[in-house]
Amino acid sequence: MVTLLSNRKHVVAANYSMVSSNSLDALVREALTQNLKGIWRFAFSLSGNPETANDLVQATCVRALERSHQVTSDHRLDAWLMTICRSIWLNDLRAQRIRQTQSLSHAPDAALLDPRADTETNFFASEVFTKVMQLPEAQRATVMLVFVQGYAYREAADILDVPIGTVMSRLSAARGKLKHLMNDANTAAGE
To answer: Where along the chain do its domains lie?
Structure first.
């Protein structure tokens, strides 16, 4: 049976099946386990601070478990978790009356490095991530969702609650700034 679910501005079709509360909890717990690193990376891209990212991940886990009864399908629970994380971040910003990240801490290497990749790849990834963290928050979050987490433009737009054109615009602006930042770094290294 197909039913329509309202997701703020967007309406999404999802397969709906009656499942017990325990099954929903199990689905959410499994999704949390599988997506914990991705949620942390996204939380870090929002906050720019590893401690705040840890707090955001913890709050996301709690809220997801509290609201597991709202899950009607196991399709794209990862996007649901990212939406929860972003919602908590925005609520915290509003509560603290902070509209921009104050300072960006360096991310712990263990959270960013892929143990399966070679040293050169990890070094380059760390260098690029440092440059991404210099982007404005909106561009940073969009880059993390699309290029790091692998979401499609439409999915990123839904998570960020913006039109798809805004996602494309942010990515275009971010590419230009990253190119400029990488050229500056290469120029400085060559001098």
So the answer is: 2-190
